[in-house]
Design goal:
The chain is an alpha/beta fold. Helix content is 43%, strand content 14%. Strand 3 and strand 4 form a beta hairpin. The longest helix is centred in the first third of the chain and has 44 residues.
């Protein structure tokens, strides 16, 4: 793994707690074996001590020193095993607390049960709670690393733009909405939109890697969504959507992928861009209950998250790049998130959930997108899709085993007997205001 790329399950969770606990248990077993070896060496030394001939043996002193080294080794293994199990408990407490916070709005009873479990673990050793608190504190302190050094000559462009973006959120009453709680459903009715197919093609096959998938976004001018329909051997259809990010900084004009939709989605309201994505899927043939998976950049990360959490479709795979939110998914939904710590839009997610979300194969890959301050920071380069494709390529080259979770997805799509790809252009029916391009 490159030193520049951090791959983990959740914000403060870097490892699988079950794996850590298993390692701790194995270390306990090794500790017992080392203790037995130490005991055997000590008994042998004691027995030989009773014989003058044995004491005269040239290796007798060496045997005593071996016993001493086994004793030191036993103490080291015992300490490592204890600390490993302590770490597993601390990570589990963080996970339980994060899960409780995620489900609190929809299932307060379950939230109380999760908090009780966390409290019982913490009470078993006072160090556990302290370590759990430290893990979350360290994650909170470093989750925006990279923002403060952006801009020419250290002008702290990131801080200025960050304040602007976060100010936009606060003005709309959107504090702490970067993680979408379980059970959240979009409110209200979207602006009316028209969705028109602008290009249809027949790809030779599905994507076979994350970088390749991120290169399949719409390329036709004006198209915001691409939907690929996969005709499977059993007669069913599967769909994969590719949704772009913000296309206009206007507010309420013809372009649905604008700042109005950003505000609506981030505050939990149905946007014109969300409705347009649903309409595009239906035009492509997707029906209630059909398998739909989605790749999304920027604003579309919010579309994808609500599609996975509350739509009529069966979403099992969600991949986002530079999303301003993190969904709370079920344990049978794979979530892959690409984030840059110096991406101002991605920073609106607040680092995500400290305990992670989605299936055990889910992960977040994160790096500083552009560590060097300069004029390029004015273009928000680290938020651009091309920059996230670079991150995906780094991840692919790293050979990180967590990418294996996507292998089955590519393989399943590869079984399709036919693939049809359609790009769609959407517009608001009524122009509610002038756009500021």
């Amino acid at each position: 793994m490159s030193d520049d790329l951090d791959v983990r399950y959740g914000g403060a969770i870097m490892v699988d707690t079950a794996v850590v606990r298993d390692v701790g248990a194995r270390l306990v077993t090794i500790t017992a074996s080392v203790e037995a070896a130490w005991g055997g060496a000590s008994r042998a030394y004691a027995l030989l001590m009773g014989s003058a001939a044995c004491r005269a043996w040239s290796e007798f002193d060496a045997l005593g020193r071996v016993g001493g080294r086994w004793n030191v080794l036993h103490a080291e293994f015992e300490k490592i095993a204890s600390r490993t199990l302590l770490m597993a408990d601390a990570y589990e407490v963080v996970e339980l607390r994060a899960q409780a916070a995620a489900v609190a709005a929809g299932d307060p009873t379950l939230a109380d049960e999760l908090r009780d479990r966390a409290d019982r673990i913490s009470e078993s050793d006072e160090r556990i709670g302290e370590l759990a608190d430290r893990l979350v504190a360290e994650w909170s302190a470093h989750r925006f690393d990279g923002l403060g050094v952006q801009g020419p000559a250290g002008s702290r462009l990131g801080g200025a733009f960050g304040a602007l973006l976060l100010g936009f959120g606060m003005a709309a009453g959107l504090a702490r909405t970067g993680v979408i709680p379980a059970g959240t459903v979009l409110r209200g009715k979207a602006d009316a939109v028209t969705v028109t197919p602008v290009k249809t093609s027949s790809p030779s096959g599905p994507p076979t890697s994350l970088p390749e998938a991120l290169r399949r976004f719409p390329t036709t001018a004006g198209a915001q969504v691409k939907v690929e329909r996969y005709a499977m051997p059993d007669g069913t259809n599967r769909f994969v959507a590719y949704a772009k990010g913000t296309q206009s900084v206007g507010y309420g004009g013809k372009e649905p992928w604008d700042m109005k939709s950003n505000k609506e989605l981030y505050s939990g309201e149905t946007s014109a861009s969300y409705q347009a994505t649903i309409d595009a899927l239906k035009q492509a043939g997707a029906k209630e209950g059909d398998r739909v998976d989605i790749f999304a950049h920027s604003q579309a990360g919010m579309i994808a998250s609500h599609l996975a959490m509350g739509s009529e479709f069966d979403v099992r795979v969600e991949v986002t790049a530079g999303s301003p939110v993190e969904p709370t998914l079920d344990d049978d939904q794979l979530l892959v998130q690409l984030r840059h710590t110096d991406d101002l839009v991605s920073s609106l997610a607040g680092g995500g959930s400290p305990g992670g979300t989605g299936s055990p194969d889910s992960f977040t890959a994160e790096r500083v997108g552009d560590p060097d301050p300069g004029l390029q920071d004015f273009t928000l380069r680290t938020h651009m899709l091309e920059s996230y494709i670079e991150t995906a390529e780094m991840l692919e080259e790293s050979g990180d085993p967590r990418l294996d979770g996507l292998d089955g997805f590519w393989d399943e799509l590869g079984e399709a007997e036919d693939i049809e790809s359609t790009e769609y252009h959407a517009e608001r029916v009524d122009d509610g205001g002038d756009e500021c391009e």
